[in-house]
Every structure is written in structure tokens, then in C-alpha cells.
Amino acid sequence: MKFVAFERTQQGTGASRRLRRADKVPGIVYGAGTPSLIELDHNALFFALKKEAFHSSILEMELGGKTEKVLLRDHQVHPYKPQVLHIDFQRIDATTRIVKKVPLHFTGEENSPAVKVDKCLVNHVVTELRISCLASALPEFLTVDLSELTKGQSLHVSDVKLPAGIKVVTHGKPNPVLVTVVEPAAEEEIVVAAPAAPAAKGKDKGKKSEKQNKK
């Protein structure tokens, strides 16, 4: 993906506020030399951030007539307004080794024996993985094939086929669970009690006559 950034000469809280009032977003690009202060058009950036590839792939940033390859590293948004407050990028080249979260794309779930035969539900425990690789090998996403899932099965990180040169960073968890199969809940049989039969009219008349005789 490609986007346009502009050089920012002013910095500080007051300058950032003025930029935001002008529908601009202050940002910074660091790595491979001196950090660069930048500003971006808010609306263009706001909609770019809604795209998965903007978060997990190498981006081409046009700045001052030159194009640089960068990665999105961080961004801050307003607590309740649809407004981007600040954004950080990192310059990279083909030899840069990076650690980055990438999304998981699950395929074949509806055709798995667990779903198609046993009517189970598939629970996606994890939807992204942190990986380590060269920037040139960064995948936009990782595909996880669920077509062989069976009843009672769980899928772990070790079950995912990774492209060459990519390693999952698990932070002390050797083989985290990605997917579990949940059996359908048993249907409860509800028994409806039959309504009570109304009292016979003859008996009611007999009771009334007994009361009258007592009187």
C-alpha cells in the first residue's frame, strides 16, 4: 500500500493541536537514520487504518518527493471521537529483521467433519500471531486450514504451516492453542403439564344444597 506524508517543521503540544484542528495527524518516522517529523491527511489515514494490510504489510511512504518503505508501529486514537491523534512508522529495508503481529485467516471451517458432520462450533481462540522474520519476507496474513478439524480436536501453533524464514514469537508459551472445537449443547426436553380438569357441576350443586339444609 502507498500513502503520502508531508514534512512537519513544528512540534510540541500546541503545534499538534493546531494540526488536528486542520484535519491533519502528527507523526514520526524512525529507524535507519535521523527520525523525521511528518503529518498526514486525517481522513485518508482514518480510512487506511480500517484496512488489514495497512497494519501488517510493508508500506510505501511518499515523503518530499521520495518513496521509503516503512511499517506501521503504533497509532493513538481519541477515547471516544473517531479521530486519529498520532502515528508512528519505522523505516525498513530488505535486510531488516522485524517482529510484527500478523492476522490469521481461517479457511475450510464449514467443510470440516467437526462442522459438517457433527454440527460442532469452532472457537477462534487467537486471531493474530506475533512473528519474527526479515522485512522482505513479511506476509500480509497467515492462512490456517481448518478443513480437517474433527470433534473434540484443538489446533495449536505447531499445526500451522509457516513460510520459510518465519518464526512465531510465543513469549514463554511453547505451543498456544489457536482453535478449539465446541460440541453443540444438548437440547433439553420440556414437558408441559396437562391443565387440571374443572370440577363437575353436579357436585357443586350438591354442596350448595348441603349448605342450605344446614341453614
UniProtKB/TrEMBL annotation:
GO terms for biological process: translation. GO terms for molecular function: 5S rRNA binding; structural constituent of ribosome. Gene3D superfamilies: Ribosomal protein L25, beta domain (2.170.120.20), Ribosomal Protein L25, Chain P (2.40.240.10). Residues 100-184 form the Large ribosomal subunit protein bL25 beta domain. The keyword Mitochondrion does not apply. Residues 5-89 form the Large ribosomal subunit protein bL25 L25 domain. InterPro entries: Rbsml_bL25/Gln-tRNA_synth_N (IPR020056), Ribosomal_bL25/Gln-tRNA_synth (IPR011035), Ribosomal_bL25_b-dom (IPR020057), Ribosomal_bL25_C (IPR037121), Ribosomal_bL25_long (IPR001021), Ribosomal_L25_dom (IPR029751), Ribosomal_uL5_bac-type (IPR020930). One of its GO terms (cellular component) is cytosolic large ribosomal subunit. Signal peptide: none annotated. Residues 196-215 are annotated as: Disordered. Pfam families: Ribosomal_L25p (PF01386), Ribosomal_TL5_C (PF14693). Residues 201-215 have a biased composition (Basic and acidic residues). SUPFAM superfamilies: Ribosomal protein L25-like. This is one of the proteins that binds to the 5S RNA in the ribosome where it forms part of the central protuberance. Belongs to the bacterial ribosomal protein bL25 family. CTC subfamily. This is Large ribosomal subunit protein bL25. It comes from Piscinibacter sakaiensis (Ideonella sakaiensis).
